[in-house]
Amino acid sequence: MGKKELKEMSFLDHLEELRWLLVRSTIAVLIMAFATYFISDYLFDTIIFGPTRPSFYTYRLFCDLSHQLNFGESICIEELPFIIQNTEMEGQVNMFVWMCILAGFILAFPYILWQIWQFISPALYEKEKKNARAFIFVSSLLFFMGVLFGYFIVIPMSVNFVATFTVSEMVKNQFTLDSYMGMVKTSIIASGLFFELPIIIYFLTRLGLVTPTFLREYRRYAVVLVLIIAAIVTPPDVVSQTIVAIPMLIIFEISVIISAIVYKNLQRKNGKLS
User: Fold this and answer.
1) Which of 161, 233, 127, 129 is nearest to 190 (CA)?
2) Label partner for 142 (CA 20 to 30 A): which of 114, 131, 192, 213?
């Protein structure tokens, strides 16, 4: 293996590169997770448990919106009648570690994207390789927008819905720490990754796995799916469901436009070759 000037790597070489990608990404996540340890009080008391308080920013914003739309106090949150309790011996320790890792993953996400770009760049054209900064910036921006959407929209609405929904006044809501943290993790990561849809569609279109025609044909199903998700995570009122659904539909439409542009460019290149 003295000559490393081969343009094409073997399958084992690709696996080795992938292994180091995972190693470097994991180290970055752990470093950022360790850094969050020093602000753990703020991370848990203010950020993670913020949506459990009626004074949370989103609840106050919705209340102001309710007044402006002449809905009165219909979507104002005066109280959230539930408590969060730990029922396992090591529950709080485990949650502390995993939420720090989650925060570390979010903070290290741009670096992870850079590692992914380094892995896939050999398969790209020279002109495309120069777009590394744009790829990192746009992908990171979309991910952080998704995280904020999950935190400020999805989580508060989910908390409000499950806290106020009851089958009987005899039943009091006492949520476990694990269930609440699970909802927080799922909402944030799922929203962040969903906002990466335009980037995913870009690469899938380049690989020929997705076409704009396919996306347009299944648009109606995507709309129905988005409305179902919005109905699940929000209280049963049109305003809340609309607030959740509109950004998700915009992301999907942006993905369709990106797919159309990429597909047209590929068709133009193929036309020149033929």
Assistant:
1) 233
2) 213
